[in-house]
Design goal:
Elements lengths: L15 H5 L18 H15 L17 H16 L3 H14 L4 H20 L9 H18 L4 H14 L17 H12 L6 H17 L2 E12 L10 E4 L2 E4 L9 E15 L9 E14 L7 E14 L2 E14 L2 E18 L2 E16 L2 E21 L2 E12 L8 E13 L4 E14 L12 E13 L7 E14 L6 E12 L2
Antiparallel strand pairs: 1-4, 1-16, 2-3, 4-5, 5-6, 6-7, 7-8, 8-9, 9-10, 10-11, 11-12, 12-13, 13-14, 14-15, 15-16
Helix pairs in contact: 2-3, 3-4, 3-5, 4-5, 5-6, 5-7, 6-7, 7-8, 8-9
């Protein structure tokens, strides 16, 4: 069981001037109490703020509106709000600062102070019996989330802003309870978004107490999860849909032959789509102390479709098995089965087991991987080709957060496909690196570079007495803008290049693709 329903409640609320600068302080058991003798000074401060706001003159005119509060007036209001929040008077704090932030949207301190007051007011409404997704609590959480997201778009490196955004999403999503409607949570909800932001907080240099609280917070989000999903759909112009050589001639039995157009690279425009869905159910046993266990049941569909069906590729699969969660990571043991078609024809079917997991080593470093083994059968239009063979695949990765807005992944793996279709038997190994960077003005850039080495077992004696050996360089550059959102999805554009070299000319090719679609943003 998760004992602490709100593990971040002990993270100390910084003065707003420090928060906007991105500072984080260690967790504190509770805010310091204000002695009753201090209340008159607070009242005097509030009175002076009110007088300043309604004075006809101002010592410094605002750049937004000459009649708007000056910087000195904003600073005085921010100090008053900090004191009110310390006393637990969130509604009064929000009523004071919200008109000021609306009049001075250029003041980051006023906007951030409004967000903090809105979060506190929403949480107070929930404690009084309101539902997080209903008025009035939802209105306050919405105000905080929209304000903090706008600040992150301008500068994604603001750690404290990201921390408070995650807390607001957690509160609005009521993440200490299982979701009531699984369908609405398949493609990511507030709790999923909160988890993503907290994971990025771990990529910063924060005190150990904050790291501990954030890890527990992530555990709460993951333990609550009952459903997850993914969806992608994009147009895909492709210069080489049949992954064929662009060479004019090839050698057959040592003699040059001219290739016809059908055997060479063909361009086209296709549609690429993928959908995955999973539900989880609590199980009554634990594999490790202080962990929880879930039963995962899910499936996925992938399809690349071009006119005529000659160059299509599709895969359908299902899986089920237990998942073990702790505050440092997770592990799953899954039984799976899938079926694949290539170029409009049955290609293979397989069933087997996969073990996968991820673990937090140090606050900035996650490591993980998977290993799977399956009985794979080659297929044709006439049914199975021979008997099943043992195929396997392994991969590992390490995610390192250089900054909350900049992460890098190192990855690699190996595998083998062994069926009675001897022409496709092969072994492979690969390495790669991928980076993800949140830029100012809302842009997110993703770049990846991978290299695949593949050795086929069976020689293609028509072209060479030696088995084919290939080296594939795969490059991908993708970007989207977080400012542009449609129901939580942002339009994205990906540029992909493949360059495969081989000891046999017919196996080499170059390929360029563009994929335009949508990605889920948080």
């Amino acid at each position: 069981m998760l004992r602490d329903p709100n593990p971040l409640a002990r993270i100390h609320v910084l003065p707003i001037s420090k928060a906007c600068a991105g500072e984080v302080e260690p967790a504190a058991p509770s805010p310091p109490a204000i002695h009753p003798t201090h209340l008159p000074s607070v009242r005097k401060l509030l009175l002076s703020v009110a007088v300043c706001l309604f004075m006809s003159g101002s010592s410094q005119a605002s750049a937004v509106d000459p009649s708007a509060p000056s910087d000195e007036q904003v600073a005085a209001a921010v100090v008053a709000v900090e004191r009110l929040l310390t006393q637990g008077r969130a509604a009064e704090a929000l009523g004071l600062i919200r008109p000021i932030s609306e009049a001075r949207p250029d003041s980051e301190q006023a906007v951030f102070s409004t967000a903090l007051a809105a979060i506190a007011t929403g949480e107070a409404a929930v404690r009084a019996g309101a539902k997080p997704k209903k008025a009035p609590a939802k209105e306050h959480f919405d105000l905080a989330i929209s304000s903090l997201r706008e600040m992150l778009v301008k500068d994604p490196g603001r750690l404290r802003v990201r921390l408070e955004l995650a807390r607001a999403l957690f509160s609005r999503g009521n993440c200490i309870q299982p979701p009531g409607n699984l369908i609405t949570h398949l493609l990511g909800d507030d709790c999923w978004a909160a988890e993503q932001h907290f994971l990025r907080v771990l990529g910063a240099d924060v005190p150990p107490t904050v790291v501990m609280n954030v890890r527990r917070y992530i555990q709460v989000c993951r333990a609550r999860k009952r459903a997850s999903g993914s969806l992608s759909l994009s147009l895909a112009p492709d210069t080489n849909v049949n992954t064929s050589t662009s060479a004019q001639t090839v050698n057959i039995f040592g003699l040059p032959f001219q290739l016809n157009e059908e055997a060479r690279a063909t361009s086209g425009i296709g549609v690429v789509g993928a959908f995955g869905a999973e539900v989880q159910h609590p199980l009554p046993f634990k594999l490790f102390p202080k962990s929880v266990t879930r039963l995962r049941v899910g499936g996925q569909v992938y399809r690349r479709d071009y006119s005529g069906g000659e160059f299509d590729d599709s895969n359908y699969g299902i899986y089920a098995g237990p998942r073990f969660l702790s505050n440092r990571g997770q592990m799953s043991v899954l039984f799976q089965a899938d079926r694949r078609s290539v170029n409009g024809l049955p290609y293979s079917r397989q069933y087997g087991v996969r073990v996968e997991g991820v673990r937090l080593v140090v606050p900035k470093l996650w490591v993980g991987g998977s290993a799977e083994a399956s009985r794979q059968t080659a297929l044709s239009l006439n049914g199975p080709v021979g008997k099943p063979g043992l195929s396997w695949n392994t991969q590992a990765f390490a995610n390192y957060s250089i900054l909350p807005s900049l992460g890098i992944r190192f990855m690699g793996g190996s595998g083998r496909e062994q069926t009675d279709r001897f022409s496709t038997r092969h072994s492979s190994r690969w390495v790669g690196v991928m980076g993800n960077y949140d830029l100012p003005l809302g842009f997110t850039l993703t770049a990846a570079q991978q290299m695949f080495l593949t050795n086929f077992e069976q020689p293609n004696r028509l072209f060479s007495p030696d088995p084919p050996e290939t080296k594939l360089w795969f490059s991908r550059l993708a970007f989207h803008n977080r400012l542009i959102q449609i129901k939580g999805f942002s339009p994205s554009l990906s540029l992909i290049r493949e360059d495969r070299k081989s000891n046999i000319t017919i196996y080499g090719y170059q390929r360029y693709r563009v994929e335009a679609g949508f990605v889920r943003v948080f």
